[in-house]
Specification:
Elements: E1 2-8, H1 12-25, E2 31-38, H2 45-51, E3 57-59, H3 64-74, E4 79-82, E5 87-88, H4 93-101, E6 107-114, H5 119-127, E7 143-145, H6 146-151, H7 163-173, E8 178-187, H8 190-194, H9 197-212, H10 217-227
Parallel strand pairs: 1-2, 1-4, 2-3, 6-8
Antiparallel strand pairs: 4-7, 5-8, 6-7
Helix pairs in contact: 1-2, 9-10
Amino acid sequence: MISVVIPIHNERNNLSRLIPHLQRIRGDHPVELLPVLSGATRDGSAEVLRELGLEPVRCEATSRASQMNAGARRARGTTLVFLHADVWPPEEFFRDISRTLSEDYQAGFFSYRFDNPTLLLRINGYFTRKDGLFTGGGDQCLFIEKQTFEALGGFDPDQVLMEDFEFFRRMKRARTPYRIVHNDMVVSARKYKRNSYLRVNLSNLFLLILFHCGCKPDTLKRLYGKLFRPNP
């Protein structure tokens, strides 16, 4: 079974599209969907999920790392998938995951493109096919064998920002075999719409450099709040 953990903070509109899509493309694959609501979610996401036949997992902690760990603990599958609510998986999503893990890889990610196909965002998307500085970001949708995830200790709940990069760093140190699947997810460009292309890319690079230099998670989160305009 594949367990899809979806951390949620006020994602009502995205969930009403994403959940039916996942239910459709799973086909004959045994799949369970585990939406995990943050304690601060107030937009009716829980009601949308119940209308779609799912009972959300509750997580009073607001960090995405804690949400994803809560979902992983509830998971019955042997494979964990960590999917953001504003990311649209391809039709072959579950087939690609199963095929990758059957080929001696223990984990993987997907390349992606943006839902706003400007030239600059197409360039960004192209580099998600390569192993580089930004590999391992949450929009690439980590999938991993559950026993490997547990052996690595899960996400660090104290890592309130860049929990995905921190986990990937431990994956690399442990030499966990992984693959980047070249079958694009579609990622929301809403952050770029509310900010600018240059602002987002320079800010992401700045934060990533600070992370690799050992900057504390709380400091990174405060800086993030100053650098980016929040989503409505």
